[in-house]
Write a structure and sequence with these properties.
The chain has 2 helices and no strands. It is mainly alpha-helical. The longest helix has about 80 residues. The chain is rod-shaped. It starts with a helix and ends with a helix.
Length: about 160
C-alpha cells in the first residue's frame, strides 16, 4: 500500500512537472510570436521607408533631368548657366545621399529578413518541442489513469478479502 502511495505521488509529481514545462513552453512560444510580430512591423516600416526613398529618388532624378535640360537650353546666358550648374551639383549630392540611404535601407531590410527567417525557424522548433511535450503529457495522463484504475481495482480486491 505504501509503494502504491509513493508511486501515485511520483506520478502526480511527474504530471505536475509536465504541466509546468508545457506552460513554460507555451509562454516562450507566445514571446517568440510577439517578437515575430515586432519584426514584421519593422519590415513593414522599412518597406515603407524604401518606398518613400524611392519616390524621393524618382523626384530627385526628375529634378536632375530637368536641371540638365535647362542647362542645355540656357548655355547662351552665362549667369543662368552658373545657377543651373550649382543646382545640378546640389541635386547630384542629394541623389548620392538618397542612393546611399536606399542602399543602407536595403541592407537593413535584408538583415531584418534574415532575422525574421531565423525567428521563424526558432518558432517552428519551439512548436515541435511543445507538441512533443503535449504528447508526453497526454501519455502521462493515460498512465496516471491506468495507475488509478489499477489502484482502484486493488483496493476493491483488498476490500473484498
Amino acid at each position: 500500500m505504501e509503494k502504491i502511495k509513493e508511486k501515485m505521488n511520483q506520478l502526480r509529481f511527474e504530471a505536475d512537472n509536465a504541466v509546468t514545462r508545457a506552460e513554460d513552453a507555451e509562454a516562450k512560444n507566445k514571446k517568440y510570436d510577439q517578437l515575430i510580430l515586432e519584426k514584421d512591423q519593422e519590415i513593414t516600416s522599412m518597406t515603407h521607408k524604401i518606398s518613400v526613398l524611392e519616390a524621393e529618388l524618382d523626384k530627385v532624378d526628375a529634378k536632375l533631368a530637368e536641371a540638365k535640360a535647362s542647362q542645355e537650353e540656357g548655355e547662351s546666358l552665362k549667369s543662368t548657366n552658373e545657377n543651373l550648374t550649382r543646382k545640378i551639383a546640389l541635386l547630384e549630392e542629394e541623389l548620392d545621399a538618397a542612393e546611399k540611404n536606399v542602399k543602407e535601407t536595403m541592407e537593413k531590410l535584408r538583415q531584418v529578413d534574415v532575422k525574421a527567417e531565423h525567428f521563424e525557424r526558432q518558432v517552428q522548433r519551439i512548436e515541435q518541442e511543445r507538441d512533443q511535450w503535449e504528447k508526453k503529457f497526454e501519455e502521462m495522463q493515460q498512465k496516471y489513469k491506468q495507475s488509478q484504475a489499477e489502484l482502484d481495482n486493488m483496493v476493491a480486491n483488498m476490500e473484498s478479502l
